[in-house]
Design goal:
The structure is a homodimer. Chain A is α/β, with parallel strands linked by helices. Chain A has 10 helices and 16 strands. The model of chain A has no long low-confidence stretch (mean pLDDT about 95).
């Protein structure tokens, strides 16, 4: 059962697109499907729509539960729902699974109509900008000419930022949480280790493992374990696990001795059961490539000049993946463009993952911001 | 050719031990060999001997070069040599390869005399304390009753610390660089991901890969890539690599795009050619287990109470693996014991790896400290 304040039972929908979508790589993809969910009601003026963009391992299932899966709660259920910071009594909220992901939208696991076989390694490399373009098409088909807000955390925040640059007339507010204007060398390095673990798994078969009836489970497990370390803060790990052991004393073996090992192995295992390895490569690559200032010679101010939206940025003090300093780079570039920007730097212990948790100060900041948005179209 | 100031051409020696060594695990190992090198001359009073302890991937080859391998320079050659901070004109320096390592001392690759086959998975789990005990036996056989100093960085620093606790009468100075009194949950987590990569490589064969004529090269590569990220600071990576690319522009593939990917793959590959996977498990486990205050209910002051040596501790501001705060825990516990302790916190950009580099302020601090030691036995 969903908690009070949840949107309750929801159901995914899907939309098919026949016209090819031109991708940043120069390739294009036609005949694709996007899976999405909606919560709340689109108002008559079509002015209350909010797009929620997902990060690496999430999906269109932002809020609520499925009738047949009452424990499958949306990944941002604490943020989106009646009376929640993004209040579905006032907003029409759309969650969409991105192209190349593995939760229903067309991706490497999908059958390529041209070959009759799964795309696998032949699925095109896509970028944040490609996702935004695909989302824009979905918006048009939903009759949403302009989003009241586009919002996301981490990679989702990059999509919200890209929307503001790419479709300035179609976004009133951009809500960019725990993001960065571009990945650092260390960020790319962690992604590359994860990809190497996947690529070098003998069950990867160059990305065409579907035909072999296997998945590169070992590589995916390691990839997820690495990711998990970077999502948590060192302090958070210390508090959660410290050096707590399974047994009373050292057992002198290489099996699980410490609780943190048990936790990581469990997280890695669980993930490798449901996530697609090609999607992991694809999404981490989209992260690596994101760099809107690349087109303006590294000048982020110039890159953001086309944006006309108002902005909320939020970051978390213990996030060492995308530190507050990275959010402040975006804030500074927006201010240099004389844009309307609100910035909340939240003192929270939970590292990068904090954007998914319901820290009261964080949620209060988002709620206040969305209150103001609601006043714009209702008042 | 060795640079001026190098000890020049050196040659490893080996020493065999028949008497079983009792290990922390309760097991024991007999019939083992330790490989070591020495530089400089032991004085008549046998009072000028310095033991250098190695970390994860290093060995007894601390300084100089081999006659037949003029490019194989010792791993701490910038620290140890005539006129160098640990001056071999004044000190008799000993480097020893630890039990369980893979550079000549008895380890998992060695043939178990009981079975006639490589130890592999049956090699006992060893600890920092076990290494120190083995080093103490070597010292006795070399006629060194008391070290002028025991010195090491990272895991080597833990050995120097353990010497002071375990053999207070046999160590005049303990030089503990870039170390920690115990690993954090995050430290253990990184070790466990590396071990999982190795263990889950199909070529690992439960640790008995020697019999199969293979090595778990893929797992070792990933393990080393992870390690490398933690040895460098984020700033250092940013400065060294930033987002520099191989090609002019994005190629939209999963091969090398960024220089940092190339660097990591190269480091991982190179390492997997020479390092033994079982040794990687063994040494990371010794790191996990190190926790001298475990025996005193978590009280580091009590754990260090037996130590009578004088101490030099050094840490590096950008070391996020073992931060300066961890060194300061040791300093505080020593001060609480009224011990003589010198502490240098070096503002250096190179992360954990800084302990291997010749930062002038760092080397000056070590040189000054060893000057004082030399005065003790010469004056």
């Amino acid at each position: 059962m969903a908690k009070a304040g949840s949107v309750g039972v929801v159901a995914p929908k899907s939309m098919h697109f026949e016209a090819p979508l031109a991708l940043a790589s120069g390739a294009s993809i036609g005949d694709y499907t996007l899976v999405y969910e909606t919560y709340g009601e689109l108002n008559a003026a079509r002015s209350n729509a909010v797009l929620i963009c997902h990060a690496l391992n999430a999906s269109h299932h932002v809020a609520g539960v499925y009738a047949d899966q009452p424990k499958n709660v949306g990944w941002w259920d604490n943020m989106v729902g009646p009376g929640r910071p993004v209040d579905t009594n006032r907003f029409f909220v759309v969650g969409v699974n991105n192209l190349g992901s593995c939760f229903g939208s067309t991706g490497p696991m999908s059958v390529n109509p041209a070959s009759g076989r799964p795309y696998g390694a032949s699925f095109p490399v896509v970028t944040v900008e490609d996702w935004v373009d695909a989302q824009a098409r979905l918006a048009s088909r939903l009759g949403i000419e302009r989003w009241a807000a586009v919002m996301g955390g981490s990679l989702g925040g990059m999509q919200a930022l890209s929307w503001a640059i790419r479709y300035p007339d179609r976004i009133a507010h951009s809500v960019v949480i725990a993001a960065t204007p571009k990945l650092s060398a260390q960020n790319i390095a962690f992604n590359e280790v994860a990809r190497t673990a996947i690529r070098s798994d003998p069950d990867f078969h160059g990305g065409d493992y579907y035909a072999h009836g296997v998945v590169p489970k070992r590589g995916l497990t390691v990839a997820r374990m690495i990711g998990h370390i970077t999502y948590l803060s060192g302090d958070d790990m210390a508090e959660k696990f410290g050096r707590s052991m399974r047994a009373e004393d050292y057992q002198f073996h290489y099996d699980i001795e410490f609780e943190v090992e048990s936790y990581l192995r469990y997280q890695g295992d669980k993930f490798s059961e449901y996530f697609d390895a090609n999607t992991y490569l694809l999404i981490t690559r989209a992260l690596d490539y994101f760099d809107p200032a690349k087109a303006t010679g590294g000048d982020l101010r110039a890159a953001l000049a086309p944006a006309s939206a108002k902005f909320l940025l939020a970051s978390f003090t213990t996030d060492w993946r995308f530190t507050p300093a990275r959010s402040r780079e975006i804030v500074a570039a927006l201010i240099a463009n004389d844009r309307d920007v609100t910035y909340a730097e939240i003192d929270a212990p939970h590292g990068h993952d904090a954007f998914l948790l319901d820290d009261p100060r964080y949620h209060a900041a988002v709620a206040a911001y969305f209150d103001n948005i609601a006043r714009e179209f209702s008042g």
